[in-house]
Design brief:
Blueprint: H1 2-14, E1 23-26, H2 29-40, E2 46-51, H3 56-62, E3 67-72, H4 83-89, E4 94-100, H5 112-124, E5 128-132, H6 152-155, E6 158-163, E7 176-179, H7 182-193, H8 201-212, H9 216-237, E8 252-253, E9 264-267, E10 270-273, H10 277-288, E11 293-294, E12 304-307, H11 312-326
Parallel strand pairs: 2-3, 2-4, 4-5, 5-6
Antiparallel strand pairs: 1-7, 6-7, 8-12, 9-10, 11-12
């Protein structure tokens, strides 16, 4: 029933036709992604990962002796894909391109033109594509577009990965799924069968209801996040030494804090010159009591990540604390 529900969702929301045999349901999307790399890539292969990236992409492939190749995107473009840089990074060892749109940590939504260029690259160079679409429901400007919907040739080389965690706030239920070529899905199923077998039956039935039931609340949630993103981005851009592009999806802000580098933090045990995202993170935690994640872990030491998956009151309070702390820097 759940695999059939996934097929219906992919048809309804993405215009993609799959059969239940083309679907694998796993214990969260992270598990789905690991099943994929276990089944598809081998030691010595290379995987292209647009940067900034979710932290697990390079680490999962490193566990298998595979080389992750970070391909930078530009803040000036809203961290959109750079097809020319991706093409330049392809070598005879390249096996897979990882796409994540909407993106964690940047909130970028890759443009149709960039996706089309990457689709052509994958077909021409005989590459696989994994399209992590976990934040699909939180696309604020226009409709979400899946690279698998751009034509039968690229669909045959794409594994679409999604989850119930974000759209339905089911993080702890641990339901992720993949849709793709049947031979690869069978190989991924073989991997999973020797690890966890399947998610719990309770979580699977909950996912059936989420995917097939009314979707009105999902749209309401997205509208609320849309409003909160404007609140937090406006506030971040008002802070001295901080700038932040407007994310077009997900629920993260990824401000550039390099304008704070070189400033002096006067601690009780001595002065510290801020010089990295780790320094900025420690400063904000100790002086503002605001927790952010250093961008170094995501591939950019000039940034930190914040989440606006919280109330207006907490967002405003956090911004006020940050402003007060920044005023103490010399």
């Amino acid at each position: 029933e759940l695999r059939a529900a996934v097929c219906a969702k992919l048809k309804r929301d993405n215009g993609l036709d799959y059969e239940p045999a083309d679907i694998l349901v796993s214990v969260g999307a992270k598990h789905t992604l690991f099943n994929l790399v276990m089944a598809l890539i081998n030691p010595g292969d290379e995987v292209l990962v647009p940067s900034p990236y979710w932290v697990s992409y390079p680490e999962q492939v490193r566990l298998l002796g595979v080389v992750p190749v970070a391909v930078p995107t530009q803040e000036a473009t809203g961290f959109d894909l750079d097809p020319a840089r991706l093409a330049a990074a392809v070598t005879p060892r390249t096996k897979l391109i990882v796409l994540n749109s909407p993106n964690n940590p940047t909130g970028a939504v890759f443009t149709p033109g960039a996706l089309a260029a990457v689709a052509r690259l994958a077909v021409e160079r005989d590459l696989w594509v994994v399209s992590d679409e976990c934040y699909e429901a939180l696309t604020f400007e226009g409709r979400h577009a899946s690279i698998a919907a751009l034509g039968p040739e690229v669909k045959a080389r794409t594994i679409v990965v999604n989850t119930c965690s974000k759209a339905y706030a089911m993080t702890g239920w641990r339901i992720g799924y993949a849709a793709g070529p049947r031979t690869l899905i069978r190989a991924m199923t073989d991997v999973q069968s020797q690890v966890t077998s399947n998610p719990s039956s309770i979580a699977q039935w909950a996912a059936v209801e989420a995917l097939t039931g009314p979707q009105d609340e999902v749209a309401k949630m997205a509208g609320e996040f849309d409003r909160r993103r404007r609140l937090i981005i406006d506030g971040l851009n008002a802070l001295p030494g901080v700038r932040c592009v407007m994310p077009r999806g997900a629920f993260y802000a990824f401000p550039n804090v390099s304008g704070l580098f070189g400033r002096t933090w006067r601690k009780a045990d001595g002065a510290v010159s801020l010089g990295s995202s780790l320094d900025a993170t420690a400063f904000l935690l100790e002086e503002a009591r605001v927790a952010v994640v250093p961008g170094r872990d995501f591939g950019s030491d000039a940034h930190v990540r914040l989440s606006y998956a919280t109330s207006d009151a907490l967002i405003s309070e956090g911004l006020a604390r940050m402003a007060a702390a920044l005023a103490t820097l010399r």
